[in-house]
Amino acid sequence: MKNFKKRGISLIALVATIIVALIILSTVIFAFESIVNNTKKSEFAKEAYTVKKLVLNYEFMNSKYPTKDQITVDLTTLNETSKNQFSDEPGYATGSIILGTVNLSQAGVDNIVRGTTKYGDNDIYAFSVTTKKIYYLMGELIGNDIYYTLTDELYKLIDINDVK
Q: Structure pTM?
Protein backbone atom coordinates (compact mmCIF):
# COMPACT_ATOMS: atom_id res chain seq x y z
CA MET A 1 0.00 0.00 0.00
CA LYS A 2 1.26 3.44 -0.87
CA ASN A 3 1.79 6.09 1.78
CA PHE A 4 -0.07 9.25 0.74
CA LYS A 5 1.05 12.60 2.11
CA LYS A 6 -1.73 14.91 3.15
CA ARG A 7 -1.71 18.06 1.13
CA GLY A 8 -3.93 21.09 1.50
CA ILE A 9 -6.20 21.98 4.36
CA SER A 10 -8.77 19.85 6.04
CA LEU A 11 -12.47 20.48 5.74
CA ILE A 12 -12.66 21.31 9.47
CA ALA A 13 -9.99 23.99 9.14
CA LEU A 14 -11.78 25.48 6.13
CA VAL A 15 -15.14 25.60 7.91
CA ALA A 16 -13.55 27.13 11.03
CA THR A 17 -11.85 29.80 8.92
CA ILE A 18 -15.11 30.67 7.16
CA ILE A 19 -16.97 30.91 10.49
CA VAL A 20 -14.33 33.24 11.96
CA ALA A 21 -14.39 35.37 8.80
CA LEU A 22 -18.20 35.64 8.96
CA ILE A 23 -18.09 36.66 12.62
CA ILE A 24 -15.57 39.38 11.87
CA LEU A 25 -17.55 40.54 8.84
CA SER A 26 -20.84 40.73 10.78
CA THR A 27 -19.13 42.73 13.56
CA VAL A 28 -17.75 45.19 11.02
CA ILE A 29 -21.14 45.55 9.32
CA PHE A 30 -22.89 46.09 12.67
CA ALA A 31 -20.32 48.73 13.70
CA PHE A 32 -20.61 50.48 10.34
CA GLU A 33 -24.42 50.55 10.57
CA SER A 34 -24.18 52.02 14.06
CA ILE A 35 -21.79 54.73 12.86
CA VAL A 36 -24.05 55.59 9.92
CA ASN A 37 -27.14 55.79 12.17
CA ASN A 38 -25.35 57.99 14.72
CA THR A 39 -24.21 60.29 11.92
CA LYS A 40 -27.77 60.57 10.58
CA LYS A 41 -29.11 61.25 14.09
CA SER A 42 -26.49 63.91 14.65
CA GLU A 43 -27.25 65.61 11.32
CA PHE A 44 -30.99 65.62 12.03
CA ALA A 45 -30.47 66.86 15.59
CA LYS A 46 -28.18 69.70 14.52
CA GLU A 47 -30.59 70.83 11.82
CA ALA A 48 -33.66 70.68 14.09
CA TYR A 49 -31.74 72.46 16.84
CA THR A 50 -30.68 75.21 14.42
CA VAL A 51 -34.27 75.73 13.26
CA LYS A 52 -35.48 75.83 16.86
CA LYS A 53 -32.78 78.29 17.88
CA LEU A 54 -33.58 80.61 14.96
CA VAL A 55 -37.32 80.45 15.71
CA LEU A 56 -36.71 81.38 19.35
CA ASN A 57 -34.27 84.11 18.33
CA TYR A 58 -36.84 85.55 15.91
CA GLU A 59 -39.46 85.56 18.67
CA PHE A 60 -37.05 87.31 21.03
CA MET A 61 -36.31 90.03 18.44
CA ASN A 62 -39.88 90.48 17.10
CA SER A 63 -42.17 89.41 19.97
CA LYS A 64 -43.88 86.91 17.68
CA TYR A 65 -43.06 83.54 16.19
CA PRO A 66 -42.19 83.11 12.50
CA THR A 67 -45.11 80.79 11.84
CA LYS A 68 -47.48 80.84 8.90
CA ASP A 69 -50.50 78.62 9.36
CA GLN A 70 -51.69 76.34 12.07
CA ILE A 71 -51.67 72.65 11.31
CA THR A 72 -53.48 69.84 13.08
CA VAL A 73 -51.39 66.72 13.57
CA ASP A 74 -53.26 63.42 13.86
CA LEU A 75 -51.30 61.25 16.26
CA THR A 76 -53.57 58.22 15.95
CA THR A 77 -51.66 56.97 12.91
CA LEU A 78 -48.32 56.82 14.75
CA ASN A 79 -46.88 53.92 16.70
CA GLU A 80 -46.46 54.42 20.46
CA THR A 81 -42.74 55.25 20.30
CA SER A 82 -43.30 57.94 17.69
CA LYS A 83 -46.46 59.22 19.37
CA ASN A 84 -44.61 59.65 22.69
CA GLN A 85 -42.41 62.31 21.09
CA PHE A 86 -45.49 64.56 21.15
CA SER A 87 -46.50 63.70 24.73
CA ASP A 88 -45.85 67.19 26.16
CA GLU A 89 -48.31 68.83 23.78
CA PRO A 90 -51.83 69.90 24.72
CA GLY A 91 -54.23 67.58 22.93
CA TYR A 92 -51.89 64.61 23.12
CA ALA A 93 -54.44 62.57 25.08
CA THR A 94 -57.07 63.17 22.40
CA GLY A 95 -54.68 62.16 19.61
CA SER A 96 -54.72 65.54 17.90
CA ILE A 97 -52.40 68.50 18.43
CA ILE A 98 -52.14 71.93 16.83
CA LEU A 99 -48.80 73.39 15.78
CA GLY A 100 -47.70 76.40 13.77
CA THR A 101 -45.86 75.82 10.50
CA VAL A 102 -42.49 77.55 10.56
CA ASN A 103 -41.84 80.21 7.95
CA LEU A 104 -38.21 79.27 7.36
CA SER A 105 -37.25 82.33 5.32
CA GLN A 106 -38.77 84.68 7.89
CA ALA A 107 -36.84 82.91 10.66
CA GLY A 108 -33.60 83.20 8.69
CA VAL A 109 -33.22 79.48 8.09
CA ASP A 110 -31.26 78.52 5.01
CA ASN A 111 -29.13 75.62 3.78
CA ILE A 112 -31.22 72.84 5.30
CA VAL A 113 -32.09 69.42 3.95
CA ARG A 114 -35.46 68.87 5.63
CA GLY A 115 -38.53 71.05 5.95
CA THR A 116 -38.54 72.55 2.47
CA THR A 117 -41.69 70.77 1.16
CA LYS A 118 -39.44 69.21 -1.47
CA TYR A 119 -40.72 65.75 -0.48
CA GLY A 120 -44.39 66.61 0.00
CA ASP A 121 -46.78 68.49 2.26
CA ASN A 122 -45.48 66.90 5.47
CA ASP A 123 -41.89 67.90 4.69
CA ILE A 124 -42.15 70.90 7.01
CA TYR A 125 -41.00 72.09 10.38
CA ALA A 126 -43.71 73.00 12.85
CA PHE A 127 -43.40 74.76 16.19
CA SER A 128 -45.30 74.49 19.43
CA VAL A 129 -45.81 77.83 21.11
CA THR A 130 -46.82 76.00 24.30
CA THR A 131 -43.80 73.70 24.74
CA LYS A 132 -41.30 75.57 22.53
CA LYS A 133 -40.52 72.33 20.68
CA ILE A 134 -39.72 72.04 17.01
CA TYR A 135 -41.15 69.13 15.02
CA TYR A 136 -40.24 67.75 11.62
CA LEU A 137 -43.64 66.46 10.54
CA MET A 138 -42.42 64.08 7.87
CA GLY A 139 -40.31 62.29 10.44
CA GLU A 140 -36.73 61.16 9.97
CA LEU A 141 -36.34 57.39 9.69
CA ILE A 142 -33.03 56.36 11.23
CA GLY A 143 -32.48 52.66 11.72
CA ASN A 144 -35.79 51.32 13.00
CA ASP A 145 -36.91 54.56 14.66
CA ILE A 146 -38.65 57.65 13.34
CA TYR A 147 -37.65 60.97 14.87
CA TYR A 148 -40.03 63.94 14.81
CA THR A 149 -38.40 66.17 17.38
CA LEU A 150 -35.31 66.59 19.51
CA THR A 151 -35.44 63.76 22.00
CA ASP A 152 -33.18 63.46 25.03
CA GLU A 153 -31.16 60.93 23.05
CA LEU A 154 -30.56 63.47 20.27
CA TYR A 155 -29.70 66.27 22.70
CA LYS A 156 -27.07 64.01 24.29
CA LEU A 157 -25.71 63.08 20.89
CA ILE A 158 -25.04 66.68 19.89
CA ASP A 159 -24.23 67.71 23.48
CA ILE A 160 -26.26 70.90 23.48
CA ASN A 161 -27.84 71.90 26.77
CA ASP A 162 -28.51 75.61 26.51
CA VAL A 163 -31.95 75.35 24.87
CA LYS A 164 -34.32 72.46 25.49
A: 0.79
